[in-house]
Amino acid sequence: MSMKMMTTGFALAGVLALAACSDAPAAENEDAGAQEQGAEAGAASPEEGAEGEQPELPEADTSDIPEVVAEVNEEEISGEDFTVLYESQFQQMAMQSQMTGEEPDQDQLKDQTLESMIGNELLLQDAQEEGYEASQEEIDALIADAAETAGMGSSEEFIEAYEEQGMDGEQLTQDAENQVLINQVLAQLEVPEPSEEELREVYDEAVAAQEEAGGAEGAEGEDAAEMPSFEEAREDLESQAVDQARNEAALDHVEDLRSDAEIQTHL
């Protein structure tokens, strides 16, 4: 299984992404605050020089990546595929580090990346064992969605750009098929409907976070966007709660699959 799909918008089932989503509300607030602080401090930062130049991004260290990073039920995960995903994840973290000033922890990110790949492999194997099938229509739709997410006008344009990066268009189609199968597994997981109490709790936390951010900003906080009422925010709150529950169910399912799997890692 090639994990190049993780860099093309197909990583809907990535365990790394799911784990991050489980903490999304707090993380988004922290990231937003860090970005604002970085923007405010950026112009005056002595490290950027008189011209306001951004410091150089750190480079991903892939010198220690073996040819095979893991075996999942005797299915190999190659170091080449790992490197593609790891470099993509590292680039995102390196860009964030420019705003936060915190150097990416490469060892931790490598562990998280490998766990993501193992989780996806387990989900794909589960789909195959359950006999799920991906139709050409579903595959085409997923590629079209990825093209739209990437800001391209058509699937053909998206595939051409993929191939221009030295990658195989046929592999892209295979990756899309794999992701359709994984999505079918996730769609079968039972996700409870959020209760009124849970929605109220999420809303109250959001209100408290906004008030705290406004108080920290002082006078500038008066320009902050006004918090919508509970009823106005209800639809978004329900969507957020369902996504949270779906993420948790997916993580639990991966853990169940992992408990019965034979996994060897080599990082």
Question: Could you characterize the architecture of this molecule?
Answer:
GO terms for molecular function: isomerase activity. Residues 1-26 form the signal peptide. Residues 24-68, 207-267 are annotated as: Disordered. This protein is mostly helical and 267 residues long. It folds into two domains: 1-25 and 59-188, Orthogonal Bundle (Triger factor/SurA peptide-binding fold), CATH 1.10.4030; 193-213 and 222-261. The protein is built from nine helices and three strands. It has helices at residues 15-21, 24-42, 79-100, 106-129, 136-149, 155-164, 169-187, 196-217, 230-259, and strands at 68-72, 75-78, 263-265. Strands 2-1-3 form a three-stranded antiparallel β-sheet. The radius of gyration is 21 Å and the shape is globular. The model is unreliable at 1-50 (pLDDT under 50).
Topology (elements, then pairings):
Elements: H1 15-21, H2 24-42, E1 68-72, E2 75-78, H3 79-100, H4 106-129, H5 136-149, H6 155-164, H7 169-187, H8 196-217, H9 230-259, E3 263-265
Helix pairs in contact: 1-9, 2-3, 3-4, 4-7, 4-9, 5-6, 5-7, 8-9
Defining key terms:
single chain; 267 residues; mainly alpha; Triger factor/SurA peptide-binding fold; 2 domains; 3-stranded antiparallel sheet; 3 strands; globular; disordered N terminus; Trigger_fact/SurA_dom_sf; Peptidyl-prolyl cis-trans isomerase SurA
Produce a short descriptive summary.
The chain is mainly alpha-helical and 267 residues long.
Q: Mean of residue pLDDT?
A: 79
Give the low-confidence spans: 1-50
Sketch the topology as an H/E string, one letter per element.
Answer: HHEEHHHHHHHE
User: What's the number of extended β-strand segments?
Assistant: 3
Biased composition (Low complexity): 34-47
Biased composition (Acidic residues): 48-64
Keywords: Isomerase, Signal
Signal peptide: 1-26
